Amino acid sequence: MSMENKSHFPEHGPLDENGKEILLQVKNVDITFGKGDNAVKAVKNASFNIYKGETFSLVGESGSGKTTIGRAVIRVNPCAAGEILYKGVRISGKIPRSLDREVIRNVQMVFQDPAASLNERATVDYIISEGLYNFHLFENEADRVKKVENMINEVGLLPEHLTRYPHEFSGGQRQRIGLARAMVMEPELVIADEPISALDVSIRAQVLNLLKKFQRDRGITYLFIAHDLSIVRFISDHIGVIYKGNIVEIAPTEELFDYPLHPYTHSLISAIPIPDPQLEKNKVLYTYDPSIHDYSKEQPELVCIGHDHYVYGSKSEIEEYRRIREKGERVQSITILDPDMPAEERERILAEAAAAVDKKARETEQRAEGNNYIADAPLHDTGNIWLGVLAFLLPIPGLIAALIFKHFRYIRNYKIMRQGALIMLAILAVIIIIFLLALFLATL
After folding, report:
1. pTM of the predicted model, to two decimals?
2. 105-121: buried (b, 16+ CB within 10 Å) or exposed (e) per residue?
3. Is residue 78 part of a domain?
4. pLDDT at position 191
């Protein structure tokens, strides 16, 4: 039986050239939302491997596609292209029901918002036990109670908490409940979607330590989604950096921090705060400007430049990245100004850096406005089919009305009326051409 048609997962996944077991493979995945003119490609040609027992972190700014990939792994977001393999078996697209249940059983997710991800009407006991009930993972009631109590102890809560409801807990305690709900299923892969971003700094360390404890004790593999490189550095084996749906760099953790080759990775590292206030004051923030890339002649792709280091770029960029890496000199990603530098010079450099940040913020805001152009349209901008019919019957007034709609941002109404008017004008043009042709032939 081929791996494509399997109804159950094998005991072990495929091995790479170094003999390491690959648990999850994401291969050339595209994820698209919407259709037609409203289609948005959230993830473009994403590829990476996650090895068993390791932590792969996906890092990028908000809206870059991190969570979209995580939700695709648990089969919530469909893939428009490419495939996702678990232990060498495809789990994206249509799969047998038995395989779907195994995915639910073996791949669990810890969500970003610990409040929204828990059922407020259910007790903690039921929340943790729900997966056990659905998959019959206990022999009898005493066995179920024992499993739940052991798990609640492991995450640092008490058995008396089981009779309470989520609203009675703090954010950190809720996240522990969410972690217990995932871990009680004894999964092999856990997708941690920014599990600490909503927590206080002191609680973050506790949750991270808890995740590492489960990894040590149970050999769990993590896909850790975050936007803060300073956190993932201490828990990750490999890091993937994603920007606007494109994975721009993948490397082992220390390799990435020693040789941040892609400019976007450079900008993320430069944004990590320095604990020393004096150094932070003299730090020059590097801002990534995507216009520095010229992809008009050479199409970019994700290429391995050696040392298990992948970078996204055109052929000429890849050659430059490879040259920098082969020099073996650490890439300086953070620039600290000399305190003895003349005040005017330091202020000029910091002002230029601040101006670049402001420019980037304005571009981001304009892009957000552009993306929401249709979403923020007026209430009656429905694109009613009868407007298209009206424009079809009266094409010239229809075009004028369409332009008026466009002026007032009734984009859907504008498109349907323009379409109806253009169809009628095309029909009239064909009729006129046929008539003139017939007239011409009659005069011969």
Report:
1. 0.75
2. bbbbbbbbbbeebbeee
3. yes
4. 94
